[in-house]
Design brief:
The structure is a homodimer of 203-residue chains. With 203 residues, chain A is mainly alpha-helical. The first copy, chain A, contains 9 helices and no strands. The N and C termini of chain A lie far apart (66 Å). Chain A binds a DNA duplex (30 and 30 nucleotides) through loops.
Chain lengths: 203, 203
DNA sequence: CAACAAAAAAGACACTGTCAAGATTGATTA
DNA sequence: TAATCAATCTTGACAGTGTCTTTTTTGTTG
């Protein structure tokens, strides 16, 4: 009956997830700059220091948001890599395009996920690392496969880890230059990705 | 005689360059987080609002610092590309290695130069753009040359702009992943760069 | 020398993250 | 059921921050 967001109970009930949800929404809508603990608390209908019972500090909250992003990214890569209806070459192309598209469609989230803020030596939460590392590792696995199938243009002695670091670097770099506003021509994203695919494929 | 940094004159004399110098030092030493206008003003020996007569706001100051970085980067690329004692292949390899090395040796400056903060639509100063764009353009020129000499692995129809965006994306991405703390094994930087070179060269 | 404009200072405001101390609640145990 | 306790939430407070407005000082110029 009364689902007006006016705070009525002293104990919120599920503040932790509420904080994550609303913070994510704020992030998507107005960017990381507009995400402050005080505004967040206000919007959730709770006092400014209530969040501190669920997150050690602001950084821990940000790590929590990023976790969700890495789950998405991991799932996306896994799904496309395991689709039976596509050739290896198509899958490789899909990886490049999808990765950049993910960043372009969730610029604020992507910025957070790979921003130095949460990856500074003592900042990354254990929970975050346990979600992000498998995501990183999966990209190495994909590269290993592509390498075995002689899809990529490089010499024999190159190991999969290095190659995947280069591939990842490429998509990450393109994504970053796009969403940070240095590549200003958003309209040619597909062309850039196509070019990247072309430059990496063995002929 | 008295070169103690105690403020003695009302008018500083050359506050603008002093601010840039000290701010750059603060940036290198302790990172962007530690650069605040108030601390900066304090260290220069001036009131907290004095800087506003030389920079519209904090963002304008940061743009000023970044300018110097782009001058360096431009010069570095130009010098190595014009060295007569090296083969084209060596120059290409040098470009990749040098670029990443530049970022790794000046992490805070690089982060500022390519951070979204100063490149947000209305944030970049005209002066910054006039220094940065030629720097970007030069990378296209280099790529055009490499393309003409059939150094790179890609098909005929690829244009130099797209190829240079991919190349730049690669070095930028590798650099970012390194200095943001996502690639934690700094010791293999050279190997990653070598691998990148190998993957891009035509065979 | 007087007038003016540039440069610097001081006051003030609305933010921010975070901590300490107290209030309220739901759950557990006696 | 009643008392205890820990989790949760609130309020007050502090030291920061960027930036605006008003006032003071200075160098320059007519």
């Amino acid at each position: 009956m009364t689902n007006i967001p006016i705070k009525v109970k002293y104990h919120h009930g599920d503040l932790r997830t509420s904080l994550l949800e609303v913070a994510s929404k704020m992030l998507n809508e107005s960017g990381i700059e507009e995400v402050s603990l005080r505004k967040l608390a206000n919007r959730v209908g709770v006092s400014r220091s209530a969040p501190y019972h669920h997150f050690k500090d602001k950084n821990a909250l940000l790590c929590g948001i990023a976790e969700e992003g890495f789950k998405q990214l991991y799932l996306m890569n896994k799904n496309s890599f395991n689709s039976d209806s596509k050739s290896t070459k198509e899958k490789f192309s899909l990886f490049i395009h999808q990765y950049v598209k993910f960043a372009k469609s969730n610029p604020e989230l992507y910025e957070l996920m790979f921003g130095r803020a949460i990856w500074k030596p003592q900042n990354s939460t254990k929970a975050l690392r346990e979600i992000a590392y498998p995501c990183f590792q999966y990209q190495v696995e994909m590269t290993k496969k592509w390498q075995k199938l002689k899809l990529l243009n490089h010499s024999e002695e190159d190991n999969a880890l290095r190659a995947s670091q280069v591939l990842w670097g490429t998509v990450h770099g393109i994504a970053k230059l796009l969403i940070d506003g240095i590549y200003t021509d958003d309209s040619h994203v597909e062309e850039i990705c196509d070019c990247a695919v072309d430059m990496f494929l063995a002929r």
